[in-house]
TrEMBL record:
This is Tyr recombinase domain-containing protein. Belongs to the 'phage' integrase family. It comes from the Bacteria. Pfam families: Phage_int_SAM_5, Phage_integrase. The keyword DNA-binding applies. SUPFAM superfamilies: DNA breaking-rejoining enzymes (SSF56349). GO terms for molecular function: DNA binding.
Length: 374
């Protein structure tokens, strides 16, 4: 790629008796964000073509001095980009603002990680403050921090997730040449604590389905999640435009996943489709809210005789585990759950692996009788 060698201050005559000042780049400068090749840039500064009074001459001299200062600053930035130097202007920019802007384009855990970092640095942090020691102190903060919503000790696995996100933002800043050192190479991970992925058995799901619920839309949302594996955020945002029809009359969902922001296609059973009928102009689960997953849902679970600690996400686990238990292969389950890696699916369905169940029956103590004459 060609590199700019000179930045020259030039002027161009205008019809109203003034000259406009602009910069000329030779042979051109590639804007790092838009990748546009720039050869000229107007400064928006104008001087008198023929100054007549001392005041006009003084004005021209002042404007040319300002234009020259701009020329020097821009040329300095180009040289820094060319030779991988970092200007003071860049390093003094707010890393906290950068973290927030990136987090807004991601899922909720990114914003939670940002909020904890903002609390850690008391609302101020520039790129030049980022070094290994500073980042390690943030890791220590996460291990001792309290939840910003409940005030309770932050779950270690949540701390591990927020730390992974912070490492990702550091990597992104390094790739975009906002920080010079690849800090993450010197940072350890926070280890996750293995947790039990709770789910319902088929008998428990049937019991739940047959138990009356005071909030009908919540009941439909829960059962629908168990029959499709949809997350709560996707159920809340599901519209009838996303319910599509196969040529043979079957139905499937085609929607943008709220967590991953990618197009997701999920076939649904006839029972799942009948559950959400009749079709209306409103969202499929109009009136269903996140808050319903607290007291109302717990009471309904208790009424059905389920004593497990069940959250809404457990219904996604239920869908995955029941699919495996009923003979669906793990790669099909991976596709149904829209997991990028099959290892994620394995965590959900470890207890239901057909191969491990088959292996459990290989060692037998009872010797079967055989007819030697046959």
């Amino acid at each position: 790629m060609q590199q700019c060698k000179t930045v020259t201050l030039r002027s161009r005559a205008r019809r109203n008796g003034t000259h406009s000042l602009f910069l000329e780049f030779y042979p051109g400068y590639r804007d790092p964000k838009t990748m546009e090749l720039i050869r000229r840039r107007s400064l928006g500064i104008y001087i008198y073509s023929e100054p007549k009074s001392p005041r006009e001459k003084e004005y021209n001299a002042l404007m040319i001095e300002k234009a020259e200062a701009i020329r020097c600053n821009i040329y300095s930035e180009i040289i820094n980009e060319k030779y991988d130097f970092f200007s003071n202007k860049k390093t003094k920019e707010s890393f906290l603002d950068y973290f927030e802007e990136v987090s807004k384009t991601k899922h909720n855990k990114w914003l939670s990680s940002f909020k904890h970092f903002s609390a850690f640095c008391h609302g101020e942090c520039s790129f030049e403050e980022l070094d290994v020691e500073f980042c390690r102190k943030f890791m220590d903060y996460l291990l001792k921090a309290k939840s910003l919503s409940t005030g309770k000790q932050l779950n270690r696995n949540s701390a591990a997730d927020y730390w992974i996100i912070f490492r990702n933002i550091l990597n992104l800043a390094y790739r975009e040449r906002r920080i010079k050192e690849k800090i993450v190479d010197y940072l350890d991970y926070i280890k996750w604590i293995p947790t039990v992925k709770e789910s319902l058995t088929l008998e428990e799901l049937r019991s739940l389905y047959n138990t009356p619920c005071s909030i009908e839309v919540m009941k439909k949302a829960v059962i629908f999640s168990c029959l499709t594996g949809l997350r709560r955020s996707d159920i809340i945002n599901l519209t009838w435009e996303s319910v599509r029809k196969y040529a043979d009359g079957g139905r499937y969902l085609d929607f943008i996943c709220q967590k991953t922001k990618v197009q997701t296609i999920v076939p649904i059973s006839n029972e799942a489709y009948e559950l959400i009928l009749p079709e209306t102009a409103k969202p499929v689960f109009a009136g269903f809210t996140k808050e319903m997953s607290n007291n109302e849902m717990r009471k309904w679970l208790k009424d059905s005789g389920i004593k497990k600690h069940i959250t809404f996400h457990c219904f996604r686990h239920t869908y995955a585990s029941l699919q495996m238990e009923l003979g669906t292969d793990i790669y099909t389950v991976q596709h149904l759950l829209a997991h990028k890696n099959v290892t994620t699916t394995q965590i959900y369905v470890a207890h239901a692996s057909p191969k491990t169940r088959e292996a459990a029956n290989k060692i037998k103590l009872k010797v079967e009788d055989t007819n030697e004459n046959e």
